[in-house]
Amino acid sequence: MTSYDDLRAVFINCTLERSPEVSNTQGLVDISARIMAKNGVQVSHIRAVDHDIAFGVWPDMTEHGWPTDAWPALQRQVMDADILVLAGPIWLGDNSSVTKQVIERLYANSSILNDCGQYAYYGRVGGCLITGNEDGVKHCAMNVLYSLQHLGYTIPPQADAGWIGEVGPGPSYLDPDSGGPANDFTNRNTTFMTWNLLHLARMLEDADGIPAHGNQRSEWDAGCRFDFENPEYR
User: Fold this and answer.
1) Contact 202, 2 (CB under 8 A)
2) How would you label 126-164 residue by residue, b for 16+ Cβ within 10 Å and e otherwise?
3) Any residues with CB less than 8 A from the CB of 141 and at least 6 apart, and which?
C-alpha cells in the first residue's frame, strides 16, 4: 500500500476574514486537509490575512522600506511542504486581493535555485480551491494554476475544485441550507484533486524531483545550451 506519511502539505487560505471570523473557504479546505491527514500527511494551515504580509515582489520587504514583513517566515513553511494548495473566495468574478498578494510574494522567491541549479519550487505540487456566491470558479482556478506552474510547481490533472451558490446575493458555503457541504459535484472534485496531489507528490518525491537536465538556470548561465541551436549564434 502506498504511504504518504513522509509528505507535508500547506494550505494558504486567502479569505478576507481575519480569525476568529468564520471562513467559508476554510470549510472547503478542511475537506481536502482531512483526507490528507487521514493518510499520514503532515498538514499545516496559513490564513494569510492574519499575518502582516508586506506588499512587493522581493523575498523580504523589510529590505525595501517596509517596517515589518511576515512573509519570509511563511515562505519557509511553503518551502518545507511538498504540496501547496491556495484557497480563496471570488470577488467581482476574480480572485481575492489576498490571493493575488500571496501569489506575488511566492513569485518574489521564484528566482532562487535549488541544489541542482533548478528554480526552487521544482519538485513541488500545487492545486487550488475556490469558494463564493458568484460565477468565476474556473477563471480563478486558471489564474492560480497558471501562476503556480509558471513559478515551477507541477500541476496534476484536475488540480482545482470549488463551490458557488446561486449566482448573486445568497448563502455562502457554510451557511445553513446552502447545500455546500453536501454538494456531490464539489465533494467529488475536491476528493479527486486531493488524491491527484498526493499521487503526484509521491511520484516526485520517489523520483527526487524533476530530472535536472535541460532546466537548470545555473547551467544555462554558465553557457550550457541543452541541445538548443539558434542560427543567429553561428
Assistant:
1) yes
2) bbbbbbbbbebbeebbebbbebbeebbbbbbeebbbbbb
3) 128, 130, 160, 162
- Residue-level pLDDT at 1: 80
Amino acid occupying residue 46: I
CA 191 to chain centre: 16
Q: What's the residue count for the chain?
A: 234
What pTM value is reported for the model? 0.95
Q: Are 33 and 69 in contact (CB under 8 A)?
A: no
Here the cell at position 65 is 522600506
Q: What is the pLDDT of residue 62?
A: 98
State the CB neighbour count (10 A cutoff) for residue 223.
Answer: 6
* Side chain identity, residue 204: L
Distance from C-alpha of 124 to C-alpha of 210, rounded to nearest angstrom: 9
CA distance 50 to 43: 18
Point out the residues of the chain with pLDDT beneath 50. Answer: none
Helix, strand, coil shares, percent, the chain, to 5: 40, 15, 45
How is residue 62 written as a grid cell?
A: 523589510
Element (H, E) at 77: helix 71-80
The backbone torsions φ and ψ at residue 171, rounded to the nearest 5 degrees and listed phi first, read -65, 150
